[in-house]
Structures are given as C-alpha cells and as structure tokens.
Write a structure and sequence with these properties.
single chain, mainly alpha, 2 domains, 20 helices, 0% strand
Length: 405
C-alpha cells in the first residue's frame, strides 16, 4: 500500500517547519535548556577527546559523531543544518517500527501517526540545537526495530542476528543518552524470561563486552558518575506521573469518546483509583520541589493559572491511574512502567526526559489493546495531533514571552 499524497504533504510541512525553526533559532521546548546545552558543550564537539574541561562529562558518542560532521562541514551553523536533515529520518524510523509491530493496521494510519514526532517540542529543539537526545533517539528506534523483529520471530534457542543488533544499537543508545539505560534493563529482563538459559548467558556476555568501553571511560573520567539522582521519591513520583499524564490523558480520552470501547469501572479499578489518590495525597504532604526548574507542563500551568499545585496533583493522580490501566493487559507492562516511574529521580526533572521516549514506549513496547483501538481510526490520530499542536503552540509562545520564567 502506497503512502497517500496527503500524508506526504503533512511530512513535507513538518520538515519545512523544522528548517523554519532553525532559521529563526526557535527553541520549541521553551526552556532554553537545549540552547544552553549546545553552547556549553561545544568545546566537546571541537575536541571530543578533551575531558579536562569543567563540563559535566557525559558518555561522548554524540559528541564524536557531531565532531566528525563538524570536521567535514567546518562551520557550526552547517552542523546544525546537517542535524536537521538527519532528524527528518526519525519519523520515518518510527513508521518503520510501527509497521513492523502492527501488520494488520492501515499503513497510512501508521505513517500519519509517526508524524506526531514533528509536534513534540523537545524533539524539535534537539534537532535545531544538536543534542544527545536526537542521536540517542535514532539508535533507540533502530534497536526497537530489531527487538520487535526478534520478539515476532520468537527465536529463543540460539543467539540470533536480531537479538545481537538489538543489544548493539541499544548500547549505542545508552552511550548517546544515559536515560535509555532504563529501557535496556527492561530488555535484559525480557531476555531472562524468554531466552533459554545458555542463550541468556551469551547475551549477557555480549552486553558486558559492549559495556566495557563505558567501564574504561568511567575509570578514567569518574565525573561521569556525578548524577543528579535524588532520593526524594515523593517528589519524583508525582512529577513523573504528571508528565506522563500529558501523553495519556488525550490518548484515553480519544479512546473513550470516539471508539466503541468503554472504560468500565469495576472494584479493582475503583481500588486502584483510591490508591492513586492516597499516594499523591501522601506525597503532597512532603512535596518540596522547586517548580521554577522543570517539573513538566502541568506544574507550570497549575501555578500560572491557579497560583497553587492542586491542578498539578490532579494530573498526577490521573497519570498514576492511566498507567495502572496499561498494566491490566500484560504483567510485563507493569515492570516497564515501574522502571520508568522509579528510574527517573532527580532534583530537576524535565519534560525532555520523557519526550518522545514515552510515546515510543507506549506504542512500540507496551502490549495493550488500547493502542490497536487508537491506531485503527484516522480521526483518533488527527485528534491526538491537534492536541499536541496546541501543546507545541503553547511551548513556542512560552519561548517568546517567557511566561514560566
């Protein structure tokens, strides 16, 4: 089935909008963090082997790649232009992964949905201001493709090519952006559950082999272990749930109002809702997060509109509850969701930690009937796009008027 001209036009519009953002130096995320990060880490692009700087050292794969491009083009602005062209492949990679997983759904629906990537502020800023996020995302999508292929083939009796490539590209993902280590842990758990014991040990050996450069790197530059991890889980849990709710509220609302599926409420779901309310209420008693520094869209909106955090806490309750609904179809979903909720705990939590990672996880890794119900209708996809178009517009307005400052 060929991609329709209308979908191709939508892709072209999304691509042109990226170059417009580049021309006008727009930070779509609205925080200024991508611009600051690009400027502050530029010495690593000029010399990726120089770790005697005062920068917070990260795994350097992104800077090696950016440095090679810079060596070829010779100018900072041309490097940014090249990254914009590279970034245009991300929606296509997302489409390829969707097509691999959802073989019975209209390919045009899948292509149309993949364009949601263009509407995510963090994605747009990470392209315009070349960031570890875009590099890590590309490797992550390639790894997901081979993971889906391995999962479909169900070759558990020997160390297959898709399994090797999943591990290889996931290693490159983590070397580009460390937060994806959370997903790597999930992969290892899946390997442990599904693979024969001998093949699992072989897989662990390969993972150890790919991890060895990182171990050497940490040995010589231990500052990479300097993390922002915060033990105040009462802060991070409610923030994480609130941020994730931004993606799940429209998703479940569209399913409820525009499909035949009705989210019935039974005793189990009522109990879960009460538990979600109790968790957020208890956490709110100790909540002391500085909302001037990150915290997500809803915490900013709550303070701007109501001058309090009540709306933010409501979004957190909804986030917890909607995540619970995703665990009902598959126990492995529970493992992945808990890893994400507890794996991101820092004294500063930004939207970019989850965007677009959570959308990729929701549609490519979580096993739930809701995704299939959502993707079968173009109307559902258009509504979801419309929601994120408003979200993107709000972020761009914030970039110009600095409302959250």
């Amino acid at each position: 089935m060929k991609i329709t001209y209308l979908n191709k036009i939508f892709y072209l519009i999304g691509s042109v909008s990226i170059f417009i953002s580049l021309f006008f130096n727009i930070d779509s995320a609205g925080s200024g963090g991508f611009v600051i990060d690009f400027s502050s880490t530029w010495p690593l692009v000029e010399d990726p082997f120089n770790f005697n700087t005062n920068l917070d050292i990260k795994f350097p794969l992104h800077y090696y790649i950016a440095s090679l491009i810079y060596l070829f083009v010779g100018e900072k602005e041309l490097l940014r232009l090249v990254y914009c062209f590279i970034g245009l492949f991300v929606p296509f990679l997302f489409f390829i992964c969707l097509k691999k997983k959802f073989k019975n759904i209209d390919k045009n629906n899948l292509f149309l949905f993949s364009l949601i990537i263009f509407l995510l502020p963090s994605f747009r800023s990470s392209i315009v201001w070349p960031n570890t996020q875009i590099t890590g995302m590309i490797f992550f999508l390639i790894s997901l493709y081979y993971f889906l292929e391995w999962d479909i083939q169900k070759k558990i009796n020997y160390f297959s090519k898709p399994l090797f490539l999943t591990i290889f590209f996931m290693s490159l993902t983590v070397y580009s952006r460390q937060i994806y280590a959370i997903i790597f842990i999930y992969f290892v758990i899946i390997f442990f559950i599904k693979l024969k014991k001998k093949i699992f040990l072989v897989s662990c050996s390969v993972i150890g082999l790919f991890a060895s450069p990182g171990i050497v790197f940490v040995y010589f530059w231990p500052r990479i272990l300097k993390a922002t991890f915060d033990l105040k889980l009462y802060n991070s849990l409610v923030i994480n749930a609130s941020i994730i709710s931004l993606y799940l509220i429209p998703f479940f609302s569209i399913i409820y109002f525009f499909t035949k599926e009705r989210l019935s409420i039974d005793i189990k779901k009522k109990t879960a809702l009460i538990l979600c309310i109790l968790i957020v209420c208890i956490c709110s008693l100790f909540f002391d997060y500085n909302y001037y520094m990150g915290g997500g869209f809803f915490i900013k909106l709550s303070v701007l509109l109501f001058d309090n955090l009540i709306f933010f806490f409501i979004s957190s309750i909804l986030g917890f509850y909607l995540l619970f609904l995703l665990t009902l179809n598959n126990n492995l979903n529970t493992i992945l969701i808990l890893l994400i909720l507890f794996g991101v705990s820092a004294y500063i939590i930004f939207m970019k930690y989850f965007e677009p990672m959570f959308i990729l996880v929701l549609f490519l890794l979580l096993k739930t009937k809701y995704v299939n119900l959502f993707l079968v209708s173009k109307k559902n996809i258009y509504l979801y796009h419309g929601y994120f178009l408003m979200y993107l517009s709000a972020a761009i307005v914030n970039n110009f008027f600095l409302l959250t400052k």
